[in-house]
């Protein structure tokens, strides 16, 4: 049954909308971190609607929030499948088939359709674009060269067809840009639509000196699954602590997943304490971040990795996996963290060596550099890329956005 949700008043910080059009966004669900971006889009677009495949996926643990948005839940068939990647992991994915997409688009009669990812909803949106020539189509993509490994020729062919139907396409980072270019996308039609941290999830207070130099406080936030690389990370931290008996280590593990129970049973040396908190509300992150020295992001495959943004905004250096686009895009070794290969048994230990070699002044400088590296990556900045894409397909200038 289709569920129409109550609309909320839009913010009125602009005298007139930047995009004078009816725009419909189709996506799977709204993560908490995306809400401020979509609210910013609603503020700058005359008539903005969101079509969701589901309120939240089964492996996500948060209360959906849509305030300020006009949202409709679609009629959707959800399928579960296994993702087997060459990096050596299996993971669960949910594939949504919102089968009333054509009817919803005919009902709303959009000037611009924004469709996330290159699946069924984008196929249905492309058909709508063909049948309704006045309507424009923007495909919003999130991927990297690493996550796209092994996708197969059939999928590449389908994606080339979808790309050929789009009036514009967005990309979340440099690696995604390269994937789209390899699939034949016209660079002139590509627009940067990056991730941005929710201001409610970051620590913005004064940067505090690192804790006791004899204690290294590490933090992991994310699902506890094979794809996230947590097994190897814990094993490597345990081994490092064993080799540095004169140093105390603390590791806080935030999140849930099938690996939590076996990881909590791992034997640890006396100088290493591992705490498993379970899932925590995103509003607790601003308190959690400054209570640690480092964030470890050990993923085996992430097309971005927003927790890296959140940590950097909070002044927390990151030891991040090279297999995530956030790491390769945002981190600079010895400036705001370190990059490492989680498949290398000695990769994490080398980064921890470099952290321990930093004195108090170097650590304070690194905290400042963390914030500087993401200072412009706000929800408004993220939304501006999609506003530019909308202006482009409407044939208007991209220089008259309503900025913060």
Automatic annotation (TrEMBL):
Entry's EC annotation: 2.4.1.284
Top-level EC class: transferase
Keyword Signal among record annotations: no
Alphabetized GO MF terms: 2-deoxystreptamine glucosyltransferase activity
Pfam families, A to Z: Glyco_trans_1_4
Gene3D superfamilies per the UniProt record, alphabetical: Glycogen Phosphorylase B (3.40.50.2000)
Residues in coiled coil: none
InterPro entries documented for this protein: Glycosyltransferase_grp1
Keyword tags: Glycosyltransferase, Transferase
Protein name in the entry: 2-deoxystreptamine glucosyltransferase
Source organism per UniProt: Rosistilla ulvae
Origin organism lineage: Bacteria, Pseudomonadati, Planctomycetota, Planctomycetia, Pirellulales
Protein encoded by which gene: kanF_1
């Amino acid at each position: 049954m289709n569920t129409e949700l109550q609309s909320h008043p839009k913010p009125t910080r602009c005298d007139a909308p930047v995009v004078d059009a009816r725009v419909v966004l189709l996506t799977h669900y709204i993560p908490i971190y995306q809400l401020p971006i979509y609210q910013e889009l609603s503020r700058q677009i005359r008539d903005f609607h969101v079509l969701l495949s589901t309120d939240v996926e089964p492996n996500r643990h948060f209360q959906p929030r849509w305030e300020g948005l006009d949202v409709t839940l679609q009629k959707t068939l959800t399928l579960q499948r296994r993702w087997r990647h060459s990096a050596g992991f299996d993971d669960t994915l949910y594939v949504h088939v919102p089968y009333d997409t054509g009817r919803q688009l005919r009902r709303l009669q959009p000037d611009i359709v924004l469709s996330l990812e290159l699946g069924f909803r984008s196929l249905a949106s492309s058909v709508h674009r063909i049948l309704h020539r006045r309507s424009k189509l923007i495909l919003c993509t999130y991927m990297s060269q690493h996550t796209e490994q092994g996708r197969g020729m059939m999928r590449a062919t389908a994606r080339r067809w979808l790309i050929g139907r789009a009036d514009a396409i967005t990309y979340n980072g440099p690696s995604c840009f390269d994937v789209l270019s390899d699939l034949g996308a016209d660079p002139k039609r590509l627009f940067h639509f990056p991730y941005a941290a929710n201001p409610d999830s970051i620590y913005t207070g004064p940067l505090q000196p690192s804790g006791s130099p004899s204690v290294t406080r590490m933090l992991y936030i994310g699902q506890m699954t094979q794809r996230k690389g947590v097994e190897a990370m814990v094993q490597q931290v345990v081994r490092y602590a064993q080799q540095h008996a004169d140093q105390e280590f603390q590791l806080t593990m935030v999140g849930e997943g099938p690996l939590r129970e076996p990881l909590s049973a791992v034997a640890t040396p006396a100088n290493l304490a591992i705490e498993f908190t379970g899932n925590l509300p995103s509003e607790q992150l601003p308190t959690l971040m400054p209570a640690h020295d480092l964030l470890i992001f050990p993923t085996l495959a992430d097309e971005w990795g927003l927790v890296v943004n959140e940590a950097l905004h909070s002044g927390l250096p990151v030891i991040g996996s090279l297999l995530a686009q956030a790491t390769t895009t945002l981190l600079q070794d010895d400036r705001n963290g370190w990059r490492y290969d989680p498949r290398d048994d000695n990769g994490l230990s080398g980064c921890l060596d470099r952290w321990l070699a930093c004195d108090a002044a170097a650590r304070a400088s690194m905290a400042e550099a963390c914030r500087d590296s993401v200072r412009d990556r706000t929800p408004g900045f993220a939304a501006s890329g999609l506003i530019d894409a909308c202006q482009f397909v409407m044939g208007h200038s991209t220089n008259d956005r309503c900025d913060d």
